[in-house]
Design brief:
alpha/beta, 6 helices, 38% strand, elongated
């Protein structure tokens, strides 16, 4: 409890008694005493009073103020209202000996008289008067309601909005500049952004009954382009297509066509759900994969391109022996040089040089040059070319009548059969050796027996796999006997040394011929005019 003081009235004199604080309370202050005495018009000696206040911090002390008799003083208090009109405090002063006490109702009425219309803490006041009162201590008796400040609206983006390329790290800690993670992919139905609406907050009230407005908050709206839907409450954006998403000047854009200038160190490899348009070139060792089309308006070097649909290369491709094209649709390129190209549809070019070409339907080589020189060119239905082979004798093989994919699968199966047979042979040798040991009475350990059993099971599985592979090989060989009507058309010259294959028959050109068609007739390759 804080230290406090009270007036003492005796015949012919007025004094003051000081009480020290208890239980860690605060001592009486000079200001408290001076203010109190000033309001009561009581004269005192300043030095004596100051010394007494200092001593009162430790023990009780009584001093004489003036030699006259004064009337008893009632319990009173000092009311303080903070400058912002949000809090009111009272500081009680003890009554003199014989003085009366104030009541809770008196205090409440005084607060009303002071203009306090809101926030009177009546329960606190009643409790204060119901128990032993603490003097010379500020007691909160009224408190305003602070406004609850709201929050600005904001948008959460569910994709990386940082356009700066950040290369990924390899396992050894080195930087992989081919994987820059530049493109932000999205799938149909993906949530792209959510608007968290503004919170306007709540009004407050000061002691005078004045409403206090919370601070103004900022609103926000979702801005977006095509291929995006917004929820009914205007708070969620979703993608309508598979593609990529970007944030441009505060707006969300989704496109199913990715447009880049070049594929190089600035972009890294591209793996995209939609179509890709490259306005420039694709540099060596980079990859472009797209579920849709790939269109390159420049040239392609020794790169890897794979499209779910078509690949179009306006200025051609020099694969440098390592360039690869794979298309679920067609491939169209101005020229193909030292390229490995495979298309489920047709392949069209003005020239093909030293390349491995496989088309699911046709290969058309037209234009001023229109030549196929060197390499291997295969198509299921037809190869249409102006000049076939070379006067310099470059090894050139053209083949029609069977699906190139079947040939690739056949090679894979034959390799698997060979590998499995080799494994079976090794297992059988171990099993035979184990059987011979047992026949001689050699006792095998549990681990050796378990190992022998596992080898026997593996031998059975591999034998069954070989049987399945051989059945598939026989089926493929039947499909590869040749497509009816398959042909090779040469609208210019075909040079000696060129090998022509149609289905399961072939021939090597012995002399130069012009304007001819090669077909399969009576179990052989026949040359006819066009």
């Amino acid at each position: 409890m804080n230290g406090y003081f009270r007036l003492i009235h005796e015949e012919g004199k007025t004094g003051i008694k000081f009480f020290p604080p208890t239980d860690g309370g605060e001592a009486v202050t000079v200001n408290d005493v001076v203010d109190y005495l000033a309001k009561k018009d009581i004269v005192y000696d300043k030095n004596t009073l100051y010394k007494a206040v200092a001593i009162s911090a430790e023990k009780e002390i009584v001093i004489l103020l003036e030699k006259r008799t004064t009337l008893p003083e009632r319990e009173c208090y000092k009311l303080t209202i903070t400058p912002d009109n949000m809090k009111a405090y009272v500081r009680f002063y003890a009554p003199s000996v014989g003085g009366g006490k104030t009541t809770a109702d008196e205090l409440i009425k005084d607060l009303e008289s002071a203009g306090i219309r809101y926030g009177v803490l009546k329960d606190v006041i009643q409790l204060c008067f119901a128990r032993k009162k603490e003097y010379c201590k500020d007691i909160l008796v009224a408190e305003g309601l602070e406004p609850v400040h709201g929050k600005d609206a904001y948008i959460e983006y569910y994709f990386n909005t940082d356009k700066k390329a950040k290369p990924s790290l390899k396992e050894d800690g080195s930087v992989d500049f081919f994987q820059l993670n530049v493109v932000q992919h999205c799938d149909k139905g993906d949530v792209l952004a959510k608007l968290i609406p503004e919170d306007p907050g709540e009004y407050g009230m000061n002691l005078l009954g004045t409403r206090l407005k919370p601070r103004d908050v900022k609103k926000a709206t979702l801005k977006y382009g095509n291929h995006i839907e917004i929820s009914e409450d205007k708070t969620t954006l979703k993608s309508l297509v598979n593609g990529h998403v970007e944030l441009i000047e505060g707006s969300v854009f989704v496109s199913d066509v990715l447009i880049v200038e070049n594929v190089d160190n600035a972009t890294g490899n591209i793996d995209y759900e939609g179509s890709v348009q490259i306005n420039g070139n694709v540099c060596t060792n980079f990859q472009v994969k797209a579920k849709g089309d790939i269109e390159v308006r420049g040239v392609v070097e020794g790169a890897f391109l794979e499209a779910g649909d078509n690949i179009i290369i306006a200025r051609g491709m020099n694969g440098m022996g390592r360039g690869t094209l794979k298309a679920g649709g067609n491939i169209v390129a101005k020229f193909l040089q030292s390229v490995n190209a495979q298309a489920d549809g047709y392949i069209a070019s003005e020239s093909i040089l030293h390349s491995t070409i496989m088309a699911g339907t046709e290969v058309n080589v037209d234009g001023k040059k229109g030549f196929i020189t060197g390499g291997k060119v295969c198509a299921v239905n037809c190869i249409n070319v102006k000049t076939l082979g070379s006067s310099m004798g470059a090894d050139t093989l053209v083949e029609v009548g069977s699906d190139p994919k079947l040939a690739i699968r056949l090679q894979e199966l034959m390799k698997k059969v060979e590998e499995e047979n080799n494994a079976i042979q090794s297992i059988q040798q171990i099993l035979l050796s184990t059987k011979q040991k047992m026949a001689k009475g050699v006792k095998l350990s549990p681990d050796q027996l378990k190992y022998a059993q596992s080898l026997a099971a593996s031998n059975q599985q591999k034998a069954e796999a070989v049987t399945n592979y051989i059945e598939e090989i026989e089926k493929l060989q039947g499909q590869m006997k040749g497509k009816e009507g398959a042909c090779i058309i040469v609208r210019g010259s075909v040079y000696p040394g060129t090998k022509i294959c149609i289905g399961d028959v072939s021939m090597v050109i012995q002399k130069e011929s012009q304007y001819c068609r090669f077909v399969k007739a009576r179990g052989d390759v026949k040359l006819t005019g066009i």
